[in-house]
UniProtKB/TrEMBL annotation:
Ranges of compositional bias, category Basic and acidic residues: 21-32
InterPro entries the record matches: Globin, Globin-like_sf, Globin/Proto, MlaB-like_STAS, STAS_dom, STAS_dom_sf
Region span, Disordered: 1-46
Protein name: Globin family profile domain-containing protein
């Protein structure tokens, strides 16, 4: 969706680290003349020396990374709570992915994920193998490649918020680099989207949902009776076609008998986009099932289905 494009696609996960930060932890930065070192306050001289290692093709300051790990393991529960709060407030469209998630169990899962990354920093084969399996699972959860930078940024921001000043910019930079490296390997395990598109394409012909006629004169997005993940690609295709050229559209939804989280998530993205871009969306006879499903997932407000 266009809105996601603005906030996610093209997102530079490191952009928020400013130039003046101590995140410039390349070994060169730590080279200094003895005279220069003498002039520095004692605290500066005690600063940990960066130890750059290569992990999955990324250069990472291991010293900062391990220091961050030590700090993070003490505050996992608070961090998870803060992280989910921020994630769902800022990106409500991802909430359905976590509909079966017990927040309390997530601290343990986060602990396991961080430990796995840290334990295998020097064992790239094991790291790759585990991340590949995790990537396959995440594709099944509905996690999109565009979600990864957002999750990485918010997780690191939560650690920073909770830990405070001891969580330095060098630590943020090291963790961002590791999470980006991990995300790349996880996403590389995703099944080729082209295969999915090809398998869905005939369906686009059969279940064509965009109509340009209607009483109101606006183009119509026609939701299918079963609107699930198998039709999400087609739905996204139709939504993109509609928003490019129109100021007002109708969604015909009287026939919806079943709609899953992936379809609702797409619709939320459409409404968020509409909100930001003055696109008017009119529901035409939304079915009770659609309204109930949106209500169960807490999306009725975003979808203006109250
Ligand atoms: C480097 C990035 C990430 C790491 C290391 C990671 C790690 C994990 C781990 C260890 C689990 C536990 C279950 C499993 O291993 O399959 C998990 C579950 C999950 N993750 Fe991630 N994740 C990452 C990114 C994401 C992203 C970007 C999303 C999408 C918003 C996401 C959504 C989920 C969901 C929906 C679950 C299932 C939660 C449940 O157990 O109910 N993850 N993740």
């Amino acid at each position: 969706m266009a809105r996601e494009k603005k906030s996610m696609i093209g997102f530079d996960p490191l952009a928020w680290l400013d130039d003046s930060s101590d995140s410039k932890s390349a070994p060169e930065d730590n080279k200094e003349t003895p005279a220069a070192a003498k002039k520095k306050p004692a605290e500066k001289q005690k600063k940990d020396t960066a130890n750059m290692i290569m992990v999955l093709g990324h250069s990472i300051d291991e010293t900062a990374l391990l220091k961050g790990y030590g700090l993070a393991t003490d505050v996992l529960e608070e961090t998870v709570v803060d992280f989910y709060d921020e994630l769902f407030t800022r990106y409500p469209a991802v909430k359905p992915l976590f509909e079966n998630t017990e927040e309390k169990a997530q601290a343990g899962k986060l602990a396991a994920a961080l430990k796995l990354l840290v334990d295998n920093l020097h064992n790239e084969d094991a790291l790759k193998a585990t991340l590949t399996v995790m990537g396959e699972r995440h594709q099944g959860y509905g996690a999109l490649p565009d979600h990864y930078p957002v999750v990485a940024e918010l997780l690191i921001a939560s650690f920073k918020k909770i830990i405070g000043r001891s969580w330095t910019k060098a630590i943020s930079a090291a963790w961002m680099e590791l999470l980006v490296a991990g995300a790349e390997t996880m996403c590389a395990a995703y099944k080729d989207e082209i295969v999915e598109v090809e398998s869905v394409e005939p369906e686009i012909q059969e279940t064509e949902s965009v109509e340009t006629l209607v009483d109101s004169g606006h183009p119509v997005l026609h939701l299918n009776s079963i609107q699930d993940i198998s039709k999400s690609q087609a739905l996204k295709h139709d939504m993109l076609a509609l928003i490019n050229d129109n100021d007002e559209i109708d969604i015909h939804a009287s026939e919806v008998e079943r709609i899953d989280g992936s379809a609702l998530q797409l619709l939320c993205a459409l409404f968020n986009y509409a909100h930001q871009n003055n696109l008017v969306i009119n529901w035409i006879n939304p079915s009770d099932i659609l309204k109930e499903s949106a209500q169960i997932l807490g999306m009725q407000q975003i979808l203006e289905l109250q």
